Amino acid sequence: MIEFSGVGQLRSPVVVAAFEGWNDAADASSAAVEHLETIFGARVIGAIDPDDYYDFQVNRPTVSGVEGMARKISWPTTRLSVARPPKSDTDLVLIRGLEPNMRWRGFTDELIEAVHALGADMVVTLGALLADSPHTRPVPISGTAGDPATAARLGLEASRYEGPTGIVGVFSDACARAELASVSFWAAVPHYVANPPCPKATLALLRRVEDLLDLEIPLGDLPERARQWERQVDELAAGDTEVAEYVRSLESREPETALPEASGDAIAREFERYLRRRGSAGS
After folding, report:
1. Residue 201: what pLDDT?
2. Is the Cβ–Cβ distance between 226 and 199 less than 8 Å?
3. Which sequence ranges are marked TM in the entry (predicted)?
4. Which of 2, 132, 171, 188 would bridge 140 by S-S if both were Cys, CB 3.0 to 4.6 A apart?
């Protein structure tokens, strides 16, 4: 059971979660939650006891110096923090950590218990996978809901995926069994540039969270880092004829589905976001 401290009174909290590991190609999804923690000044309120779920020979603790000669051990775990975005009536409960090495059902049971204890009634999970997607196009984001009612309410599809799953899929299933509304967004990271970071995919995930929650998320230098990442991959392709030819072959394919970034609804949302930010700057 997770012990909390310094929670305070939460306002209509929504959970946003991401886990490093199998679900987190190029660290894109965990970087999105880390950005929310940083930009909104989140405070840690609790952590899962790592002894129950992690193999420390796989995910080793780290040691660092503190105040001169003192030494501190940091254990790999999953932490919960709370953020209060300005100009919003919704608080964020941010979950970020590592995919556990064992006892996944007990792990998700603890998280579900924590979600109930904190009064949240929606969970948003973020993931990233490697895909045959060219870096020159907008990052495809797939969005699914954990149950038909949530899918109908938010205009998403119910998940039809069949195959191996990670902790994001197990956590989403636990939410459905606990009758918690859940949404999952997955970014498609070009597999030929799989090394982290991938700020373009992180930015795309944050845009979807922003739209879903009708929340203004300050992006800082993330858009410029995404452009720089794309320029660097352009340079890589320019210097390697095989990579360049492969990228051209990907660009020549028709996308399997219409990219959400190109839809009329997405364009309207982008314009509304621009107007909100313009109004905020004017005030």
Report:
1. 97
2. yes
3. none
4. 188
177 membership: H or E segment, kind and range: helix 167-177
Domains and CATH numbers, the chain: 14-56+73-280 (3.40.50.10900)
Q: pLDDT by residue (tens digit) across 31-71?
A: 999 999 999 999 999 999 999 999 999 999 999 887 766 78
Print burial letters for 107-130: b (CB count within 10 Å at least 16), e (below 16).
bbebbbebbeebebebbbbbbbbe
Please state the separation of Cα 235 from the chain's center in Å.
Answer: 28
Nearest C-alpha neighbor of 20 from the set 127, 93, 108, 142: 127
Distance, first Cα to last Cα, the chain: 45
CB neighbours of residue 59 within 10 Å? 18
Confidence of residue 260 (pLDDT cuts 50, 70, 90): very low
